[in-house]
Give the backbone structure.
Amino acid sequence: MDERQEKLRKIPKVDELIERPALAETARKYGRAAVTRAARGVLAQLRDALLSNPDMPLPPADVLEARICELAGQGARPRMRRVINATGVVLHTNIGRAPLAEQALEDIAEAARGYVNIEYDIERGGRGERSQYVAELLRELTGAEAALVVNNNAAAVFLLLHALRPGAEVIVSRGELVEIGAAFRIPDIMTLAGATLREVGTTNRTRARDYEAAICPGQTGALFKVHTSNFKVEGFTEETSLEELAVLGKAHGLPVYYDLGSGTLLPLEPLGIHSVPHIAACIAKGADAVTFSADKLLGGPQAGVLMGKAETIAKLARHPLMRVLRPGKLTLAALESTLRLYRDAGRAAREIPVLAMLHISLEELQAKAERLAERLAFWHYGVRALREEGRAGGGALPTQVLLSAAVELTPTPAGADALEQALRGAEVPIISRIARDMVLLDVRTMDEADFPIVEACLRRVLA
């Protein structure tokens, strides 16, 4: 028997390994099945390594035990994990968009612990409406006649158009046929909803008379406007305002729908942000229905909101498709909690994380970056605090530059990609970005409580 076969014979059996004290304790913590799976994986890797490299020494049993314990722990950990957002992108779609306010987290936990009156009217002692508490707050905050909540904004647009008579034409500007995340396109959603798309105008210029010329009695079902929240056309441009469409719709007896994508309940002009539609203003300008995402600049959970005329919203609420698109109790609890904060604008700006990140001053950001840089001074390859530019993200404020501050890390000789990967490999993954062959940690989107995690990760890299 050759030396390789002899080594393979000495590989311990799974049953023998998992009975060892360290693994028995791990089995009590994560379950015997989890440890067994991890042991099989480790031993399979060891066999492959010995077959490909006969000179490799057989590792001691305690090394195998440690690796099995590590894998068992990884397997028991949730695959969806908290990460540290050091990108400076406030609404980062890939890592969950808007983080929720502490009050919303408390209210979610309370709703999750037991039963709630999601469709029970406590005063009457009978069945109630699922979205009634959220709808009351939305009416109060915007002046809308009625409101409805579904599971995301694409669903809101789909429901709105699907509730039209089948095949009815929906007139929309060519310059507003946007593509949202993951290649979902407004024209595709409109077609799937059963509406017939009627494009008017050009990419850069669409006037009210273009809409009017396309109206066909008996065929046209609605005038539709889309806020181009994820791109901007500049130069020789012209668009039809919501006020103009409202007048046109009223003259021809047609509803006017406006997909805001990402609207706001607070004025953002004091922050130098002028391109975001104010939800209450859109209602006041005569839209029969507006739709928007709750997990963008509103700062709530993933949900789609439909608001507007009572007759329009009531029709949508009765539609059979609502049963498919309705949100659950945790979403509604988080949204209600978030909306309650808007009753006090100052409190909302302080406690809703998205708004707090947008309101923080450049001076505060610079001081924050300097504190992180001081903490990471041991990184002998080079570390410094500097001004940077960030983005709102999440399909909002496409051209808006957010002046920010970051800590710039000079990478090890392995390069910036290797350091970025090491940060992602931390126990709490740190999502950074690379610029100028340096790794940047933008502090606008970081909590100072996470600074020790960054420090620990970089110390491990040096070690």
